[in-house]
Write a structure and sequence with these properties.
It is an enzyme of class 3 (hydrolase). This is Putative ATP-dependent helicase. Residues 18-170 form the Helicase ATP-binding domain. It holds the Pfam family ResIII. The chain is of the alpha/beta class. The protein has 3 domains: 8-168, Rossmann fold; 172-357, P-loop containing nucleotide triphosphate hydrolases (Rossmann fold, 3-Layer(aba) Sandwich), CATH 3.40.50.300; 431-502, no CATH class. Helices cover 42% and strands 14% of the residues. It has helices spanning 8-20, 37-49, 64-75, 103-107, 128-140, 157-160, 170-176, 209-216, 219-232, 245-257, 271-283, 315-322, 343-347, 365-379, 431-450, 457-468, 484-531, and strands spanning 26-30, 55-59, 82-84, 98-102, 117-121, 144-149, 163-165, 181-185, 197-200, 204-207, 238-241, 262-266, 288-292, 305-308, 334-339, 382-383, 390-391, 420-421, 427-428. Strands 3-4-2-5-6-1-7 form a 7-stranded parallel sheet, with helices on both faces. A 6-stranded parallel sheet has the order 8-15-14-11-13-12, sandwiched between helices. A two-stranded antiparallel sheet has the order 9-10. The chain is globular, with a radius of gyration of 30 Å. The model is unreliable at 361-368 and 407-426 (pLDDT under 50).
Length: 532
């Protein structure tokens, strides 16, 4: 029915959905940026429409209704069966099989009662009317519910969705080349001590916006944003995320004073004006779009640099913003990310934020969440004090500038290098320590290869396993300069192997001598019997 083929993530998601379709009434589909979320919805909808069933697709904002309908038609869904639930809209026809509505519109209208499938885009957003309908549909009807989200981390989701379907991850998409790689820098880190926390419907617990704006509008902080971009931004098309309109206006004004064409886009910016602004951005007339609460959904322009100046505790807000820079484009090797908020220190890299369960799913979630938080703490990147590049956990020497901290200099920014002592004298290695060892073993492999004496990947894996009793599964192959500790361990391993080889050779020689003597004795014995 459709004129597109599913990509690998969509194929996996569809297979997982078919497997669990009869066992559950509601599903949360984890579809990160670049995995084809709207395409997946089209495949699911096509399966039901072909059997004469009705589908309601809910977008978070009215501005996305037309865009979604156009995508569905391009993919091959029957255009004559697509209707908008929108007051006085010429495309409104409640009898058609595919109904598209915005969440805010449905809040003010009667919810359709005769649908077979409800699909909710950006389902991590808390819309009370939609959540009530999910409860009604899953308990009072035979209809199914599918939520779509690239950030299914909202604490309420486990109460409304029974099954998490996770066909891929941001890390896998980056490895496959479906998402762009990134380079993180943290030029400034504001002092947020004393800033209060508030609860919001969309992002959960986060910093108080008014207090944040007061801090982030400081002339020194804004000056650092502009100065850093002029020195390191490479004149790349950039999106900047700010706290509020006052902050965005100030940042924009300072860029304009520096001769850089920047424009502000906020929630109140009219749709037509937004499209003109995006067009100027895509043609290069506008170099920087400064955003407040927008450009986190439905924005697919080629972004090669992200300025993040909105401190947050919310993983949802963090990933939604960074996702704008992770889309691939011709000639794009990596997205530059300048974090002026300190958020990368708190939340880490985008591909390190992963969950395998929906929040609040069961009573054991608190313990599970605590374990996952501890694991993520180990993976948090560390800032190079020289160039402000954010190094992966366990990497001591900066891969960008080559800076190697002196003894004691990296204590504050690389606390995971410390080893914990057990009462009985044993050593507990953190995940960061294990990554450090593996990176140094890979460095030794590269070193040997350059000397014309290569060693295999299997040798590296077995060396790691000899040390830790486990294989280096899930660790990065990123090499780092070898330390005396690891170098001595490898030397000890090689000496031990050489001595073992000598013993084996000696034993083999002895066995050959014994065998030869035995053969001589056998020959003599046979000759003796013949002469007799």
């Amino acid at each position: 029915m459709l004129n597109i083929k599913p990509n690998f993530a969509q194929e996996r998601a569809l297979n997982m959905l078919r497997r669990d379709w009869k066992a559950y009434e509601s599903f949360m589909m984890y579809m990160p940026t670049g995995s084809g979320k709207t395409g997946l919805a089209a495949f699911v909808a096509a399966g039901l429409v072909s059997r004469g069933m009705r589908v309601l697709f809910v977008v978070p904002y009215t501005i996305l209704i037309n865009q979604t309908a156009q995508r569905f038609a391009q993919y091959g869904l029957p255009e004559d069966q697509i209707s908008f639930i929108w007051r006085d809209h010429p495309n409104y026809d409640p009898s058609l099989q595919i109904q598209i509505a915005s969440a805010d519109t449905l809040i003010r209208r009667d919810f359709p009662k005769d649908i077979d499938l409800l699909i909710i885009d950006e389902a991590h957003l808390r819309k009370r009317r939609i959540l009530k309908e999910i409860e009604r549909i899953t308990t009072e009807s035979k209809a199914k519910v599918i939520g779509l989200s690239g950030t299914p981390f909202s604490p309420f989701l486990g109460r409304y969705y029974q099954r998490l379907i996770k066909p891929t991850t941001i890390g896998e998409l980056i490895q496959r080349g479906d998402l762009s790689n990134y380079e993180f820098y943290a030029p400034t880190k504001p002092d947020l001590q004393g800033v209060k926390t508030k609860i919001s419907a969309e992002y959960g617990s986060d910093y108080d916006e008014a207090q944040l704006a007061e801090i982030m509008c400081g002339s020194d902080l804004v000056g650092d944003i502009v100065d850093n971009w002029l020195r390191n931004g490479r004149d790349l098309p950039t999106v900047a995320f700010c706290v509020n309109k006052a902050h965005a206006n100030y940042v924009t004004m300072q860029f304009n004073k520096a001769g850089v064409n920047a424009e502000v886009m906020v929630a109140e910016t009219p749709h037509d004006e937004r499209q003109l602004m995006i067009n100027r951005f895509e043609t290069g007339a506008t170099k920087i779009i400064v955003s407040v609460g927008v450009l986190v959904a439905g924005f697919d322009s080629d972004v090669r640099c992200v300025i993040y100046a909105r401190p947050t505790k919310s993983e949802i807000r963090w990933l939604q913003a960074l996702g704008r820079g992770l889309r691939t484009a011709p000639g794009k090797d990596a997205c530059l990310i300048f974090d002026h908020s300190g958020t990368v220190h708190r939340l880490g890299f985008p591909d390190a934020i992963e969950y395998n369960d929906l929040p609040s799913k069961n009573d054991g979630m608190k313990e599970s969440a605590a374990r996952e938080a501890a694991e993520r703490e180990e993976k948090l990147p560390k800032e190079c004090p020289e160039c402000h590049f954010m190094k992966p956990a366990g990497v001591y020497v900066c891969p960008k500038c080559g800076f190697k901290p002196l003894v004691g200099e990296d204590v504050e920014t690389d606390t995971q290098r410390n080893l914990k002592k057990l009462k009985k004298g044993g050593t507990v290695y953190t995940k960061a320590d294990k990554q450090s060892w593996w990176s140094q073993i890979k460095f030794y492999q590269r070193q040997r290869s350059s000397m014309g004496k290569p060693i295999s990947d299997g040798w590296c894996s077995h060396t790691y396993r000899d040390k830790f009793g486990e294989w280096p599964n899930g660790l990065s192959d990123f090499p780092m300069e070898i330390t005396p500790e690891v170098n001595n361990y490898i030397r000890h391993k090689l000496i031990k192997f050489a001595k073992g080889q000598e013993r084996a050779d000696s034993a083999a020689t002895t066995n050959r001598i014994v065998s030869a003597k035995q053969q001589v004795e056998n020959i003599r014995s046979m000759l003796g019997r013949r002469t007799a």
